[in-house]
Amino acid sequence: MADRRLERFGDGTRAVHAGLPPAEQEQPFLPGPAFAAPYHLRGDDAFGAAYPYGRYGNPTWTALEQAVAQLEGDDVEALVFPSGSAAIAAVLFPLLRAGDTVVVQEDAYPTGRMLASDELGELGVTVRQIPSTTEAFVAAAPGAAVVLLETPSNPGLDLVDVAAVAEAVHAAGGRLVVDNTLASPLGQRPLELGADASLLSGSKHLTGHGDLLLGTVATRDEELLAAARRWRERAGAILGPFEAWLAHRSLATLELRLRRQCDSALAIATALAARVGDDLLAVRYPGLPGDPAHALASRQMRAFGTVLTFDLGDDAERARRMLAACELVIEATSFGSVHTMAERRARWGTDAVTEGLIRLSVGIEDADDLIADLTQALDATR
Q1: d(CA 42, CA 158)
Q2: Region (Disordered): which ranges (predicted)?
Q3: Does pTM top 0.85 for this prediction?
């Protein structure tokens, strides 16, 4: 359990100090990574030890897990995994058995959807895919052992009311698991809204530099936590200590990065929205006052996020040329990094989107420079 020293502080302070040990003379603020497979282990109480073997635990993981827990909320515990997909698997597989039902949404992280439909489906789990609306989730809650919800959705940026869905799921005896990757724990706290678990791909905002793969599970549910830990131990879904240390080091700038990225995302979305009806079909960003998700986002989210979309319709060729014409915006498939990235989302064939939908992840470059870069690329490819 994470200690309570940081509860009275703001997000920026938590991000800097989360998971750090108490001050000790002549010791570093953040101890270096512990590279170990075996540990000294005298006596017979092997499984009573905190670190019996490297697959079961590592002091560097522990520090990062405490840090993530402190960012997700008070009285929270967390586990780290080598990817966001591994984190999803560690929650879904232990909780579901043949004959159970899991609910996932049509517009969400594709690998999470495929993990449910292809892998769990083959094991006899009934998988129901539904639209990204609060009404659809509430209606689907009865009979579901687990409901997996991503809000905002990716790439549609639709929002679902977590508190309303949590109430419906719990009334039906199920568990609500929220993929909070797009918002980050500083942008939204699903556990405070009633979710049983909050999942992250830490490859995105949490680490923020596009150089790590990482996943996290945060929860107050002791049974869920124990099941996910057991899955990690037995499946060997473990994070390297150096990656864990790098991730922890990156947390100190999370609030600064997120604040700048969100401010720039709103400025860019506003500039692009002025082109709607001219050469863009639509712009989606929860921070725009006219966005369909804005009212719920204002109540549910602490920040509107770093990702927006703009739609060039079914003109795939223009979308390709526009991305190629960008000087600063990198064509890549990810988000949450200090680098601004964009992609034509239809190239994957996993989402029900137009051929010209562009997902843009805003980095920490100057907003005016990014607006100028996108403007010249759009103008050049009219």
Answers
A1: 54
A2: 1-29
A3: yes
CA dist list (Å): 286 to 152, 229, 256: 8, 35, 20
> Same domain, yes or no, for 345 and 259?
yes
In tens, the pLDDT along 15-48 reads 999 999 999 999 999 999 999 999 999 999 888 8
Side-chain-side CA neighbours of 317 within 13 Å: the count stands at 1
Encode 76-112: b = buried (16+ Cβ within 10 Å), e = exposed: bbbbbbbbbbbbbbbbbbbbbeeebbbbbbebbbeeb
How many residues are listed for the chain in this entry?
Answer: 382
Whether 75 and 161 share a structural domain:
yes
CATH number reported for the structural domain that contains residue 98 in this entry: 3.40.640.10
Q: Is residue 4 part of a domain?
A: no
| Shared-domain flag, residues 160 and 296 | no
C-beta neighbour count of 177 within 10 angstroms: 29
Q: What is the pLDDT of residues 297-355, one digit of tens each?
A: 999 999 999 999 999 999 999 999 999 999 999 999 999 999 999 999 999 988 889 99
Cis bond upstream, residue 131 (ω within 30): no
Q: Look at the chain and report how many structural domains it folds into.
A: 2
